[in-house]
Amino acid sequence: MNDVLDFYDDLPVIRQNTIDQLIAKGVPALSMGNASPAGDVLKEMRGHCHSDGYFDEAEGGELHIAILVYNQLCAPVDVACWHPRFGVVTTHCGRAFALGAEQIGNPGSFVFGQGVLVHSSVLGWLKAGRTGVYILRPKLAFDELRDLPAITAENRQHGLELKALLRPQRLPKILVRKPAQDVVYE
Hints:
The protein is of the alpha+beta class. The chain has one domain (3-165). The protein is built from 6 helices and 9 strands. Helix 4 links the parallel strand 7 (116-119) and strand 8. The chain is globular.
């Protein structure tokens, strides 16, 4: 089995009061249960978010909702740790690009002129039944999304933010080779 999946399986399932709070915010029950490739449920972790995007477990830490994150091949790669009160999202391993990344390579996600829906918040992604993606690592957006025919933003401002992300982080410097000097070897 996968180390991330083993880790995730050992986490406790979210408590009823957390489920009630999410339902009050408009999250459908299926988003908390089996709406993912493996039918995983939301779990919980205690710990601290760091500004570098990583999460450290700590028994006395704040309660976070843990979400198993898949890559485009539907393999579990990381655990996203979301603090619903503050909207902060970090990852446990730093391997994941986006929640819902498994939908990027699925043609059903962008048929009939529709783009893959990109959400601006984890709450929005959960409210949409885990359809579309929520970007966890913005620096990877260009490389991960550039082959899609279209993406759909939530609103105009979000569209402008995505447009700014969808540029290469850097381009290589181009050097022009000088013509070689005629060298005579004797």
